[in-house]
């Protein structure tokens, strides 16, 4: 099956080539005939004898093409009284193939199933004496199987499944959802199409435009039913910090995500949704890791948004098509369950997932204070009562990282002071866990995460010794000894006991 216009152009080129070849053949035959005539005349003039007999060859065959057919038919087409050349021209015109099938505005030209039979008949006409009675029939039943095959191909192309009413958009200003009406499905009646095509060729209508017929299938739900079915199918929360710049970046990413509708079969990309996180878009410098080094760059903190969304995706029942872990494990989520993103406007680690459900979904995101919440709203497609979570376990610790030493002359010489204890790197393996109630129905590997260790930071003083000072000597002094005297107070009653006071000298 090919495009109608393309087929016509191809057929025109073919017809032009045939005409060109015919002209060349006639020219060549004429030249041979003239040469033969001249040779014959020359031979008669020189020898006075009769002209030599011609050998059977191309010139004789050319003469045969001009002989008239006594009695010849192809089906209902009468070729009697025509030369073989005229008969071939008639066949070329009579058996043009432009059999098409239409479905609305879509039209397909079917494969030419008569050309090979017509070529075989032409060959027999040229090989059979024009005096003989010739009757040829087109084998239409041989076309049934190819028609059946082409009908199946058209069904694959034109059949449409019914589409129920589903969510189309979300208005951030009003918080209202808009739903798209359902659409009928259609199924090509292949058996009837084959019979229509067979009827067309048997009536020798090879230019027919057959209208395909379909059985209609109503959608499974209307708009009111869709509104009742849509609900939050996955949600996750994390807590941000008090860093204003970081929270500003998170807020911008949240606004880019909120209200995004993903149709069935579409793939979500975090980087494409937020775009490049630049100062021009309002993103502020905040802490972020680049090549394992903590730096300040616009957009720092958006990885908390991608991580929160990642959990919502998994809980909804979807699987990511791209997810990356941080170089160093973040503190706002369990190890092995983060989703790092980075974007330079062209490429970078991304968070992606494909809407593999049959219905559209919408992402809802909000930041209230330090509470970051992201949800996926859609029609549940997991079995009733099933829930999906992530479970992570440590596989091993990495080798300790050598500490980093800093000189600090302010601490005593020869001593050390631990400023940062650092951390040990580790490898985690995460699983996608499907539960029904408290029962684990299925657990499958999700991904691995490798985190680097941070070196401990130790300050020490190995260069600045305290200055040594000589002890100072002071002259030895001897205190003067004085006779111990006791002052006795004078006056009546002073310093005497009551008994002494009554003693008379």
UniProtKB/TrEMBL annotation:
Signal peptide: none
InterPro entries: G5_dom, Glycopeptide_resist_protein, Vancomycin_resist_VanW, YoaR-like_PG-bd
Low complexity bias (residue ranges): 471-486
Domain G5 residue range list: 385-464
Record keywords, A-Z: Membrane, Signal, Transmembrane, Transmembrane helix
Annotated spans, Disordered: 42-64, 445-505
Pfam families per the UniProt record, alphabetical: PG_binding_4, VanW
Keyword Transmembrane helix set for record: yes
Residue stretches spanning the membrane: 21-39
Protein's UniProt name: G5 domain-containing protein
Organism the protein comes from: Lacrimispora algidixylanolytica
């Amino acid at each position: 099956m090919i495009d109608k216009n393309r087929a016509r152009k191809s057929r025109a080129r073919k017809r032009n080539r045939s005409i060109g070849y015919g002209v060349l053949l006639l020219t060549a035959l004429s030249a041979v005939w003239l040469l033969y005539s001249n040779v014959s005349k020359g031979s008669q003039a020189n020898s006075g004898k009769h002209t030599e007999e011609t050998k059977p060859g191309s010139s004789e065959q050319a003469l045969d093409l001009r002989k008239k057919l006594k009695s010849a038919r192809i089906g209902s087409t009468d070729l009697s009284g025509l030369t073989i050349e005229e008969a071939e021209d008639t066949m070329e015109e009579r058996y043009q193939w432009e059999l098409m099938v239409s479905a609305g505005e879509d039209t397909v030209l079917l494969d030419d199933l008569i050309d090979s039979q017509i070529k075989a008949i032409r060959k027999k006409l040229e090989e059979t004496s024009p005096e003989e009675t010739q009757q040829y029939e087109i084998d239409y039943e041989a076309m049934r199987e190819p028609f059946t095959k082409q009908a199946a191909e058209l069904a694959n192309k034109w059949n449409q499944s019914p589409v129920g009413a589903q969510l189309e958009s979300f208005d951030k200003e009003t918080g209202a959802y808009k739903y798209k009406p359902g659409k009928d499905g259609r199924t090509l009646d292949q058996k009837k199409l084959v019979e229509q095509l067979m009827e067309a060729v048997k009536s020798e209508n090879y230019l027919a435009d057959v209208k395909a017929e379909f059985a209609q299938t109503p959608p499974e739900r209307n708009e009111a039913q869709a509104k009742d079915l849509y609900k939050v199918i996955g949600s996750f929360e994390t807590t941000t910090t008090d860093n204003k710049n970081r929270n500003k970046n998170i807020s911008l990413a949240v606004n880019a995500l909120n209200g995004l509708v993903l149709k069935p079969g579409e793939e979500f990309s975090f980087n494409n949704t937020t775009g490049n996180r630049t100062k021009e878009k309002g993103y502020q410098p905040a802490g972020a890791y680049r090549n394992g080094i903590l730096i300040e760059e616009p957009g720092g903190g958006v990885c908390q948004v991608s991580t929160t969304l990642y959990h919502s995706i998994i809980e909804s029942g979807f699987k990511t098509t791209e997810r990356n872990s941080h170089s160093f494990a973040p503190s706002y989520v369990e190890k092995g369950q983060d989703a790092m993103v980075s974007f330079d406007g062209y490429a970078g680690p991304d968070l992606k997932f494909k809407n593999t459900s049959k219905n559209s979904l919408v992402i809802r995101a909000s930041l209230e204070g330090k509470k970051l919440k992201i949800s996926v709203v859609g029609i549940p497609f997991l079995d009733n009562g099933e829930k999906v979570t992530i479970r992570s376990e440590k596989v091993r610790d990495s080798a300790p990282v050598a500490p980093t030493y800093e000189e600090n002359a302010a601490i005593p010489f020869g001593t050390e002071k631990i400023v940062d204890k650092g951390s040990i790197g580790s490898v985690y393996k995460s699983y996608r866990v499907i539960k029904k109630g408290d029962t684990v129905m299925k657990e499958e590997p999700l991904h691995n995460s490798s985190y680097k260790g941070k070196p401990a930071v130790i300050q020490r003083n190995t260069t600045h010794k305290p200055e040594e000072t000589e002890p100072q000597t002071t002259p030895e002094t001897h205190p003067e000894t004085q006779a111990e005297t006791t002052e006795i107070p004078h006056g009546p009653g002073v310093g005497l006991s009551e008994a002494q006071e009554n003693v008379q000298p």
